[in-house]
Amino acid sequence: MQTEIIFRIFARRQRIATRCNSINLFNFIEDMALEITDKNYKELLAEGKPVVIDFWAPWCGPCKMVAPIIEELAKEYEGKALIGKCDVDSNDEVAGEFGIRNIPTVLFFKDGKLVDKQVGSASKPTYVNKLEALL
Predict the structure, then answer these.
(1) Among residues 119, 65, 57, which one has the least CA distance to residue 88?
(2) What is the pTM (predicted TM-score) of this model?
(3) Exposed, middle or buried: residue 46 (CB in 10 Å: 0-12, 13-18, 19+)?
(4) Tens-digit pLDDT profile for residues 75-113
(5) Is 29-132 in CATH node 3.90.180.10?
(6) C-alpha torsion sign, points 125, 112, 30, 28
(7) Catalytic residue among 45, 51, 52, 60
(8) Quick check: is 86 catalytic?
């Protein structure tokens, strides 16, 4: 009986550790996409360039599908637009200001004003079309 209880506890800890490690592997931001935070988002919007912000969280499955698209766009539009990611768990001020209730949500800004949004995951051409409309 005791051995069975100890085995269950050990197995549960292993499952939790495995899940935490898989989340930590995703909990980073590539060099190309900017890290947008409560502290820097107003400055970025004031720069005058088109801005694209991907609101995401490390535990969000659909966000993991959108992440590579955002990274590709950041590389492809480098110098033409500011493209970044905002972790809603760590940056509740910016998420609250724009009324982010579902993730992933990608907001598109021109001249510092919100002009378009995409709620939920979408294909790359959807994001490209919305970004091209800003340029």
Answers:
(1) 57
(2) 0.76
(3) exposed
(4) 999 999 999 999 999 999 999 999 999 999 999 999 999
(5) no
(6) negative
(7) 60
(8) no
